[in-house]
Amino acid sequence: MFKLIQDVIVHFAMNCAPNSPPADPTKSALTPINIGSTDIFFYDNPSTDRLVLVFPGILGLDSGRTKENCVKLSKLYKVALVDIAGDYLEDLSKLLEWIPAHPFENFLPKVNEVVDHFKSVHGVSKFGAMGYNFGSWVVAKYSATPENVLAAGISFHPLWALEQFFQGEGSGPKIAEHITVPQLILTAGNDPEWLKPGQTVDTILSSRGIPAKLREFPTMFHGWVDRGDLNDPAVAEAFHAAWDDESLPFLHKFLG
C-alpha cells in the first residue's frame, strides 16, 4: 500500500506543473444545471448534436483553465462540464481520505443520468469525453463500462493510478483490458511509464484492436494542459500541441 500511496502523491501532488495558475482563475457567471443528483455546467452549441462530457481534475471545476477550455471546445460541440465528485481536494493532506470516498461506482449512475438527459432534452446523438488527471480515470473507467455511449475518450496527464486504491497494485493498466472506446492518452514526462507510447496500456489496446493514440510530452509536468503556465513558451507550445494538434483532430475523427 505504501507504494500505491507514493505513486499517486508523487505523480500528482509533487509533480504538478510548476507556476500553475491558482485553482480558481476561470470562475464565470454561468450557473450550473441540476440533472438528477449531479450539477453540470452546460456550454451549448445549437448547431451540433454532438456533445463532449468533461470531467475535472482532483482540484475541481474551477481549477486552472478547465472552464476556459470548455468555452473553446463549445465552438465545435456541445460541452457538459460534469461536477462528478461534488467535492474536491482543497487540502493535499486529505488526499488519502478523499480518494477511497470516491469510487467509480458512485459516479456511474451520475454519468448515466447526464447522458439520458442530453439525449432526451437536447437531442444529442453522439458523445465524447475528456478528463484531466482524476477526471481521466473517470473517462477510462466509463470507457470500460459495457453500457458506455462514448465514441471517443481523451485523457490529459492521466491519473489512472487511482484504480490501485480500489483494485490493488497493478490494476491501473488493466483498465485497458475492458475499454471499448477509441482513446487519446497524453502524458507528461513524469506520468507513469505504463501510460506512455509502446508501454503496457498501449500494448493492451493495440492487441485488442481498440483505436488509440498515446503521446508523451517528455519536458512537461503533470497538469500542464489545464494548469501549466502559458507564459512559458515551452508550456504554451505543448498545450497547443495537445489541444490543437491532438485532441481536436481526434474528436473530429471519432465524434464528427
Automatic annotation (TrEMBL):
InterPro entries: AB_hydrolase_fold, Dienelactn_hydro. One of its GO terms (molecular function) is hydrolase activity. Signal peptide: none annotated. Residues 104-245 form the Dienelactone hydrolase domain. It holds the Pfam family DLH. Gene3D superfamilies: alpha/beta hydrolase. This is Dienelactone hydrolase domain-containing protein. The lineage of its organism: Eukaryota, Sar, Stramenopiles, Oomycota, Saprolegniomycetes.
